[in-house]
């Protein structure tokens, strides 16, 4: 069984969180001599992915009465702009990545790990190694799963050579753009508020702002003030006859509710 079938589908990637809140890092660095407010740095990509899985479950739970998973996932994939790692020695830029026309593209973060000044291995956070010893000079390469192609013309000439361990990062997203944005806001918020609490209250406050913004968008979707589907009319759902549902505890759980508590 492959990683593709074992790992849960996600609406955003750990790279989205890092780019949104750059005080979060997945670098494996020695922080023993750093200031106390840096001690709680996130070290592992899996920690951030676990947070994404949690917030995505919340999104699905809130949206499932109106939108099926197929709508939340969207119909096409998108590739982000490749980003050089901030600690790179080399300065050659990868200006684009080509997303091929393949069935059922999944959301994943991708990493180019350089093994020399011109060669690199490429990895998907969803499926692992997707190519070894790819060259940036006069060679076009396609990943093992067929999802992406990097052409030699996509590289801009550098002034400083890459060294071993330099990285370039990008993501493939297969989720509705607005759902991706909501997932990113919620996951970044949870990462900030769980990693930084008493040590950095400003970061926690920023995290709460992101959470509130995401919940505001979800409420707009539930009310019909925003939409994911062109065929879904933008009107107030309270005007539609919907079955009134009371659970065993006597609580109103009708699908028209817009409660954003959790």
What tags apply to this protein structure?
alpha+beta; 6-stranded antiparallel sheet; 3-stranded antiparallel sheet; 16% strand
Describe the structure.
A hairpin with a 3-residue loop joins β6 and β7 (128-135). This protein has one domain (3-54, 72-203). It has helices spanning 3-6, 14-20, 45-63, 69-73, 177-195, 201-223; strands at 78-79, 83-84, 93-94, 98-99, 108-114, 119-124, 128-135, 141-142, 148-150, 155-156, 167-173. The chain is an alpha+beta fold and 262 residues long. Strands 1, 2, 5, 6, 7 and 11 form a 6-stranded antiparallel sheet that branches. A 3-stranded antiparallel sheet has the order 4-9-8, with no helix packed on it. It contains 6 helices and 11 strands. α2 (14-20) packs across α5, α3 crosses α5 and α5 packs antiparallel against α6.
Average pLDDT value? 82
Q: Give me the Rg, rounded.
A: 21 Å
Shape: globular
Number of distinct helices: 6
Structural class: alpha+beta
Provide the succession of SSEs: HHHHEEEEEEEEEEEHH
Give the DSSP E fraction (strand runs of 2 or more residues).
15-25%
Beta-strand segment tally: 11
Low-pLDDT stretches: 232-244, 255-262
């Amino acid at each position: 069984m492959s990683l593709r079938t074992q790992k849960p589908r996600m609406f955003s990637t750990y790279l989205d969180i890092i780019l949104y809140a750059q005080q979060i890092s997945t670098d494996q660095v020695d922080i023993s001599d750093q200031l106390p407010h840096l001690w709680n740095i996130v070290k592992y990509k899996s920690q951030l992915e676990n947070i994404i899985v949690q917030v995505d479950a919340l999104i699905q739970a809130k949206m499932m009465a109106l939108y099926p998973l197929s709508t939340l996932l969207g119909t096409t994939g998108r590739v982000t702009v490749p980003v050089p790692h901030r600690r790179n020695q080399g300065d050659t830029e990868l200006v684009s990545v080509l997303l091929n026309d393949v069935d059922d593209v999944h959301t994943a973060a991708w990493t180019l790990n350089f093994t020399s000044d011109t060669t690199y291995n490429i990895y998907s956070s969803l499926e692992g190694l997707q190519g070894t010893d790819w060259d940036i000079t006069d060679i076009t390469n396609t990943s093992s799963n067929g999802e992406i192609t990097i052409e030699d013309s996509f590289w801009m000439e550098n002034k400083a050579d890459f060294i071993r361990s330099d990285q370039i990062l990008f993501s493939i997203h297969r989720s509705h753009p607005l759902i991706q944005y909501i997932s990113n806001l919620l996951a970044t918020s949870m990462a900030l508020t769980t990693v930084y609490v008493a040590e950095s209250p400003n970061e926690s406050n920023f995290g709460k702002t992101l959470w509130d913004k995401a919940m505001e968008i979800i409420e707009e979707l539930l009310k019909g003030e925003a939409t994911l589907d062109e065929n879904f009319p933008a009107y107030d759902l309270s005007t539609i006859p919907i079955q009134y549902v009371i659970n065993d505890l006597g609580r109103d759980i009708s699908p028209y509710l817009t409660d954003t508590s959790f």
